[in-house]
Design brief:
Layout: H1 2-26, H2 28-35, H3 39-55, H4 57-67, H5 69-89, H6 93-121, H7 127-138, H8 140-156, H9 158-179, H10 196-208, H11 210-241, H12 246-273, H13 278-298, H14 305-316, H15 318-332, H16 338-366, H17 372-379, H18 382-417
Helix pairs in contact: 1-5, 1-6, 1-8, 1-9, 1-11, 3-6, 3-16, 4-5, 4-6, 4-16, 5-6, 5-9, 6-7, 6-16, 7-12, 7-15, 8-9, 8-12, 11-12, 11-13, 11-15, 11-16, 11-18, 12-14, 12-15, 13-14, 13-15, 13-18, 15-16, 16-17
């Protein structure tokens, strides 16, 4: 029972991190009014948070390998609560941007730290499924931002909504400090201190493992579309370009979470039972994302609501699909560098997301602001990311399979010689 309590506490920290990550996505229009920011500047506002998040992944992974999950989850919760509290009270755009950067830094520490708890507390056969549950249940934070946070923002205003988000972060601090432990008693946890040169060499070694890069491109190709939709341009696209109400847009984002949870359970079981077919599953997820976007963007008019529901359901599968990337990292990396490897994998989707969010803002600004036609042009940038990700998956998959074959041959020879 104790492993589930510790995991659930870490999961709560991740849920609040997702809430903090997505609050600006559902409050984009009020943020534009509060800080007098146009589409281009508003996208920069969010992109900076993602830049910090992605850029901090490898340092966070190194710190995770050194200090463990508990310390990093506590630090992340402190940073995010502080950033949300500053956002609640300020009307200064520079200060608000800095606060979002602080939120991004705290967010960067949380997810991989919670993931690191899973192989420490659960048997190997349960790790793929619990990893999937971590990712998909964490998206309940998006429900919190799309429904109660948005309702509080609409009914009570900016300051009460963001203050409430900060209060949740404070609650996480208390619970994590009281309940979370890095590993069971008697399980050794590495605490070695490396110099700068050794640290850089370790980072290079982890990156050069083909399984790490396979995880990176897996995360990139599956996760970015739904991330950009949830973090930045989904609500404006649904309300302005597709003509839905804010309430309907929030409902669709809730459907996204439900779809991700259902898909994650299936993907967790499949990856556990058929580990050698994981990359095929990833490629099918990417293909389905590209196909549904092609159908929606090819329409010369607003899409019917049922098609928008299908769009959101399909791209939402990319969220749990990206978790397969962490499974690749776990397969090809020893436990003492797993935090670094998971940080590298987590960079994939968020690097793609931040580039896409920024470039979409530029295109929307250049084509006259938020409109149906400008969004059609902006969303087509996704195809370049999918092409890059698929190419990377195919190349690194071949190298990873070759490495596994060599390891199998070596074990066979050792068995014969022994």
């Amino acid at each position: 029972m104790r492993p589930w309590i510790i995991w659930a506490t870490g999961l709560l920290a991740y849920i609040v991190a997702v809430l903090d990550r997505t609050t600006l996505g559902v409050s984009g229009l009020p943020a534009a009014e509060r800080f007098a920011a146009g589409p281009g500047l508003l996208s920069t506002f969010v992109v900076l948070q993602v830049v910090v998040y992605a850029g901090a992944q490898v340092p966070a992974g190194l710190l995770l390998d050194r200090y463990g999950s508990r310390a990093l989850i506590l630090a992340g919760a402190t940073l995010m609560a502080t950033g949300q509290l500053v956002l609640a009270v300020t009307t200064s755009l520079p200060l608000a941007i800095a606060a979002r950067a602080v939120v991004g830094l705290g967010d960067a520490m949380t997810f991989i730290s919670v993931l690191r708890l899973v192989p420490r507390w659960f048997p190997a056969r349960q790790v793929p499924l619990v990893t999937q549950l971590t990712g998909i249940c964490g998206q309940l934070g998006q429900v919190l931002s799309a429904v109660p946070f948005l309702a509080l923002l609409s009914g009570s205003g900016w300051t009460p909504a963001y203050t409430s988000a900060a209060a949740l972060g404070a609650l996480v601090l208390v619970l994590v400090a009281a309940l979370v432990k890095n590993a069971p008693d008697g399980v050794a946890v590495s605490a070695q201190t490396l110099g700068v040169r050794e640290t850089l060499a370790s980072v290079k070694t982890v990156w050069l493992r083909p399984g790490t890069r396979l995880g990176f491109f897996t995360h990139m190709g599956t996760q970015f579309s739904v991330t950009v939709f949830a973090l930045m341009w989904g609500v404006p696209y649904l309300t302005v370009a597709q003509g839905l109400s804010a309430t309907a847009a929030g409902t669709l984002l809730t459907i996204s979470v439900v779809a991700a949870i259902g898909a994650g359970l299936v993907i967790g079981v499949l990856t556990g039972r058929f580990p050698h077919r994981r990359s095929r599953l990833v490629l099918w997820i990417i293909a389905s994302n590209a196909a549904i976007w092609t159908v929606v963007l090819a329409l010369p008019h607003r899409a019917p609501v049922w098609l928008l529901v299908v769009l959101i359901v399909v791209i939402s599968v990319g969220g749990p699909g990206s978790m397969v990337g962490f499974d690749f990292a776990r397969t090809f990396n020893p436990s003492h560098t797993l935090g670094t490897a998971q940080g590298m994998v987590n960079m994939g989707g968020f690097l793609a997301s931040l580039v896409l969010m920024q470039m979409m803002g530029v295109i929307l600004q250049a084509t006259g602001g938020l409109s149906f036609e400008s969004f059609r042009w902006a969303w087509t940038l996704q195809y370049a990311v999918w092409a890059l990700a698929v190419t990377g998956i195919l190349i690194t998959r071949r190298k990873a399979r070759r490495l596994l074959a060599q390891q199998d041959d070596r074990m066979l020879l050792e068995g014969i010689n022994g």
